[in-house]
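Onboarding guide, step 5: your first structure request.
Type a short instruction followed by the sequence, for example:

Predict the 3D structure of this protein.
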Amino acid sequence: MLSVVLTCVVALAAAGAEDDISALLPADGVPAGWQAGGQVQHFPGDALYRHINGGAELFHANGFVQLVLNDYSKGDLEVRVEIYQMAEPAGAAGVFEANSKGADIGDEYGEACTIDDYQILFRRGRFYVSVTCYDIDEELQAALGTLAGNVDEAIENSD
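The system replies with structure tokens like these:
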């Protein structure tokens, strides 16, 4: 009986444990001259509703585990990097498909991506990534690509 209880406790602890995916975020100084925000924001499980109340259902329906995000800035320029971890690759694919309907799909980043003037969205494995800026500027476009490439490489090397 004691071994059954211990097995259940260990299984529950393992199920609740989350990997620290904040290491997948770019470091300060990536791209060169850009500063990472002061504190990485972390939204596990239902805490996602505090970040995207109206859109969290899509993520939860696709096996959402956690989100980490940070802002990167250089002067008045700002880019946000969001990394969503799903339970399975199919969940990341489902979120990507829903968020990229009607867009041209490429493979510059991850296994599939879409790129516009303000955003790069991509998926790799069980991760869905959004890299977003708020203005159109040549330096911002370059930063979007550098940050997306950095995250993509970090995810690829984490497996």
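Each response can be followed by summary notes, for example: Residues 138-158 form the longest helix (21 residues).
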